[in-house]
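hiii so um. not sure if this is the right channel but i have a protein structure encoded as tokens and i wanna go backwards to a sequence. like what aa goes where. can anyone help
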């Protein structure tokens, strides 16, 4: 993906104090309301982790706006995104998944993409 710009803007960020585990290696991954990686594939999670908190520190989680995220599969522009279970990366949603957002840039597994974060995964991918 040469010459691809990835950006963030107009982020709505909330703080989750006292994360239970070391999340310092999980920046730009999907997390849940406790600040941990979102549990099951397709649950959508709460938002995208913006910082690198260690256990007991505060997590900054984007719940709206344009955020960077790490792709867990091939992502196309406009794809509805959900979370991958073991990695917290964003992947294309199926019709039964909750979405965390919409891809604004394309990318491959392991690459950064820009996405519009949809608060609280309230939209089903089939809608």
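sure thing!! here u go:
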């Amino acid at each position: 993906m040469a010459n691809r710009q990835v950006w963030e803007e107009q982020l709505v960020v909330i703080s989750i104090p006292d994360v239970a585990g070391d999340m310092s290696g999980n920046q730009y991954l999907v997390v849940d309301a406790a600040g941990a990686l979102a549990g099951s594939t397709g649950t959508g999670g709460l938002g995208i982790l913006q910082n690198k908190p260690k256990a007991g520190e505060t997590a900054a989680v984007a719940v709206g706006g344009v955020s960077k995220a790490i792709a867990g599969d091939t992502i196309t522009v406009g794809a509805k995104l959900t979370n991958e279970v073991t990695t917290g990366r964003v992947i294309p949603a199926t019709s039964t998944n909750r979405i965390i957002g919409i891809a604004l840039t394309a990318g491959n597994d392991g690459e950064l993409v820009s996405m519009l974060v949809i608060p609280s995964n309230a939209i089903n991918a089939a809608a």
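oh and The chain has one domain: 9-121.
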